[in-house]
Amino acid sequence: MALPISPTIYLVGAALLYGVGLYCVATKRNVIKLVIGVEILVAAAHLNFIAFSAYRWFNQWALDIISVFNYFGITNTWQIYLLGSLTANFYTPLYVDPLAHVFVIISIVLGGCVVAVALSFIVNLYKHYGHLDSQKMRKLKW
Questions:
Q1: What is the DSSP code (8-state) at residue 1?
Q2: Separation between Cα atoms, residue 69 and residue 103, nearest integer Å
Q3: Do 63 and 100 share a structural domain?
Q4: What's the number of domains the chain is made of?
Q5: If we measure between CA atoms, which residue out of 99, 8, 83 comes closest to residue 48?
Q6: Are 102 and 86 within one domain?
Q7: Shortest CA distance to 115 belongs to which of 40, 47, 20, 39?
Q8: Of 10, 42, 83, 89, which cross-links 51 as Cys (Cβ 3.0–4.6 Å)?
Q9: pLDDT tens across 7-58, in order?
Q10: What are phi and psi of 28, to 5 degrees?
């Protein structure tokens, strides 16, 4: 059995992706480059979500937070359900939570739909204005 890779590698990679996406959104003026920057930001969020679901230390972290709530007498029904699911997952070696994969797959599908709609808007913007510079479009009125 292979040893798991440290989650730090994935989190650093996601931080780099987030930095590149934030740079694209903050500095680029072309609308297509803005959409690409937003998609890079979403990819960083996906990587974080999968990285957190693949490591048992995240379950231990969540158990520690719940124990702090219980210490102060704050107990809710969601904590009991979460505690039961986390303890079931905590003793399974190299457990990967499939719920995170489901959320990421749904997000990828919805992201593809959003990009398709955004590109249709971009085509109409280019037909209407003749350029895709977002700063020039702010000055113009319909």
A1: -
A2: 27
A3: no
A4: 2
A5: 8
A6: no
A7: 39
A8: 10
A9: 778 888 999 999 999 999 999 889 899 999 999 999 999 998 888 777 655 5
A10: -85, 145
